[in-house]
Design brief:
mainly beta; four-stranded antiparallel sheet
Length: about 120
């Protein structure tokens, strides 16, 4: 059983920056492909970014490429999401997830563990 706890959310103005963290406990963190998702009110949870078990490969949604960066530190069992040049449309609750025994995946149903989420609000 892996427990995930996100932190680092908050309120910023457009073009501002935030860094989200997701700390894992229990299980073996490096066994899991990790992803960040977001969910705005009334919308489905959508993929934002994912990173391979070693951290060597990352995948991004088109809407965030060049602005958001995912990275992980397996020695600290933590995955991060550096968010730059934020836009009002980035406003959502952000969740980290740990995928099952799979490689790269963007599908929420492939993620077996989830954090509780952290709110990000970007004002214009």
């Amino acid at each position: 059983q892996v427990k995930l706890v996100e932190s680092g959310g908050g309120s910023v103005q457009a073009e501002g920056s935030l860094r989200l963290s997701c700390a894992a406990s229990g299980g073996t963190f490096s066994n899991h492909y990790m992803g960040w998702f977001r969910q705005a009110p009334g919308q489905e949870r959508e993929f934002v970014a994912g990173i391979s078990r070693s951290g060597g490969m990352a995948d991004y949604a088109d809407s965030v490429k060049g602005r958001l960066t995912i990275f992980r530190d397996n020695t600290k069992s933590t995955v991060y999401l550096q968010m730059n040049s934020l836009k009002p449309e980035d406003t959502a609750v952000y969740y980290c997830g740990a995928a099952g025994n799979l490689g790269s995946t963007r599908r929420p149903k492939d993620y077996v563990y989830w954090g509780q989420g952290t709110q990000v609000t970007v004002s214009s």
